[in-house]
Amino acid sequence: MLHLKRRTWDELCRHAQETFPEECCGAIVVNAAEEEEVRRITNVQNAMHARDPRHYPRDATVAYFMDPKELLAIIKEVESGQVTLKAFYHSHPNHDAYFSAEDKTRAMFGDEPAYPDAAYLVISIYNRTVRAIRAYRWDEETRDFVETGLSTVS
Ligand SMILES: [Zn+2]
Questions:
Q1: Separation of CA 124 and ligand 1 centre (Å)
Q2: Which residues crowd ion ligand 1, with CB under 5 Å?
């Protein structure tokens, strides 16, 4: 079960609404004061698609690619111990909150999960209205991502 602060949940919804009909993406970290912080990351999928449509056939309405510099800055913070990484998130505009094969590929580094301790949140949003947020975690036994419960706390 993953517990998320109500304020964090609201921020994820806002981010998904602002980038609609494109996917949003980002990370949730926990600071030294045990507070959750939502770190928005720019979805550069459209730039990747424009530069190399053969390797990146999808545009930002159906895919996300986290800006590598912004992601690296967050990972550096995590590695230095300033914050802990709680989850990554992205939205599915006009689709349900499933964890797609593409999402799994994005979360892997070769045969291993890139961030085995992080949860992955998927936000389903239709017409700028969030329908659901679902959480997935790496399961070592099945070697796959499985859904885990998600609840909000104040
Ligand atoms: Zn996805």
A1: 9
A2: 100, 103
pTM comes to: 0.96
For residues 100 and 90, give the distance between their C-alpha atoms in angstroms, rounded to a whole number. 12
* Ligand 1 geometric centre to CA of 11 (Å): 18
* pLDDT per residue as tens digits for the range 82-100: 999 999 999 999 999 999 9
**34 CA to centre of ligand 1 in angstroms:** 28
Cα–Cα distance list, 3 to 36, 81, 86, 101, 103 (Å): 11, 21, 10, 25, 22
Domain positions in the chain are: 2-153
Q: In CATH, which of 3.40.50.150, 3.40.50.620, 3.20.20.70, 3.40.140.10 is domain 2-153?
A: 3.40.140.10
pLDDT tens by residue, 2-42 = 999 999 999 999 999 999 999 999 999 999 999 999 999 99
